[in-house]
Give the backbone structure.
Amino acid sequence: MKLIDTNSILELWKNADCVCFDVDSTVCQNEAIDDLADFIGVGTQVQQLTREAMSGSMSFKEALAQRLNIIRPSIDQINEFNKLQGHKLSPFIRELVELLHSKDKAVYLVSGGFRMVINQVADLLGIDRKNVYANTLKFDPRGNYVGFDESEMTCESGGKARVIEHLKRTYQYERVIMVGDGATDLESCPPADGFIGFGGNIVRQIVKQNSPWFVHCFSELIEKVLLSIRIFTNKIKTN
């Protein structure tokens, strides 16, 4: 993992043609899989498994499968969760996405979470659902959980990096930035051209220590974009 320096990431941020956001504890204030487990009544068991997974004793896919086998969410439960829990967006993320869209920058949500939940977040932010990369759950005809799509890139360790490789290869993006709070986000650079660490909801020291730019609020990112616009406008006026 080779990260660029602070000045370079600031310049890259102003000129990026694609921005990818993690969702849990980044775009949203909460961790959806833990909240869903609590909602269904198995939060304690899932949190214990999450701690074991973070210790490195199992792969991301193994941890995902085991947690889902405990939660076993039905379609009705997820729909009720989406309706009753709502989605706690991080401050200024809505304004940031709106600004990026106004500058014709592609915006993606890349997460190890669940598409059925993250699609709702995308709708709130005005992000096309085709720009969501997350895990797809499988259900039987009665809506009961039966598994997850193991072909999704995001169900594997290193999945976010694979998504970014796919985006660059498919759409020829030249300056891709990943924004996130976790180690899996940090590890996606490269192939991402730059990484911005986010600590607005939780600060993970490994991310803070290794980020060329670490922010605690999305207003900091908005400020840099608006500053670049003002500088550009002033240059035009003086010429």
About this structure: The two ends are 42 Å apart (CA to CA).
